[in-house]
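Trying the structure run again after the queue cleared.
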Amino acid sequence: MATERKSPDAILELVNLTGTISEVQDDPDSPDANWLDAVANNVASICRTSFPTPTGNPTVGADLQEFRVLVRKFGGTGTPTAWIELYENGALIRAGSPVNVTGQLVISFFWNANEIGTADGSLVECRLNSTAVGGAPANRACVEVGAVEWNVTYTVGGTTHLGAATLSGLGTLVGIGALIKYGLAVLSGTGILASIGALTVISKATLSGTGTLAALGRRVVTGLATLEGTGFLSAAGGVWKLGAATLSGVGILVAKGSGVFIGKATLIGSGTLATIGRRIVAGKALLSGIGTLAAIGTTGAIQYGAAILSGTGILGARGVGRFVGRVIFSGIGSLGGIGKLVTSKSIPAVPPPQYGAALRYNVPSRRSPIKDYWRD
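Done. Tokens:
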């Protein structure tokens, strides 16, 4: 949970008082000299205000939300009363108890967020109500208002149980959060889509159309980014259980991660594809078409690192201490396979005939730490 102070942003109802919203936006506990002034001293005063939407949903719990209103007596010797009422979108929810106003004081009203119907608090209103004292002119008295505030206790966006964003058409869509149990962003049309989170259980971004899509996260259990069409797609993160990026069409695709259980990037079409990681259990990059493909890993903890290109272009696979290091290229162009401590399991007994260019294997031997094998 977190807290913040909200000043009112508009006066919705004003009875027997004159002034503007700026005169009640100061802190009731550190007020300025501005007040909503009474019109008559024998008429009850009312001031109802709205507030900006809090940063997060008001947290449910007894007395976690508080209104504070600075009031003072205006007039003669009589003693008016004042109290605070919780309103939502013009409707009374609950009223507080009257307080005698004999001078200047701050009235407080506590309430529970489960009393309102709109979870984000965007329709919350505070109403200062009062009574006036009539009779002889010397006895007449009413209430003036000097400041209003809402002390919000809210739920941080990162603890959202479900965070979803959906856009159909043209434009930009973003789904962002921390500690999100489920974060989903879907865009159908043309534009930009991003799904970003930390400690996200599920982070998914899907774009159907033309544009840019990104799914980013840290310690993501499942991180998936899929783009069907033309454009740019990236899936990146740290400590992923599963990190995947798939692009069908023409463009650029990137899958990157640290501590990734599975890091995979697949591109079908023309363009550039890269899968890069550290301590990857399985790191794989596949490109079918025309372009450039790279599969790279470090820190000597990659169990399986493979790069496959079918078509025309350049392919490179590099790594240190990989259990299996393999590069396959079918077509016309350049291929490089570089590794250290790569086991002989990476060498097929007979190179498949479809290997069109060259395969290079670096294999530990008894005579030398590294021996190069070339097969045409």
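Residues 339-376 have pLDDT under 50 and may be disordered. Worth checking whether this holds up in the mutant runs.
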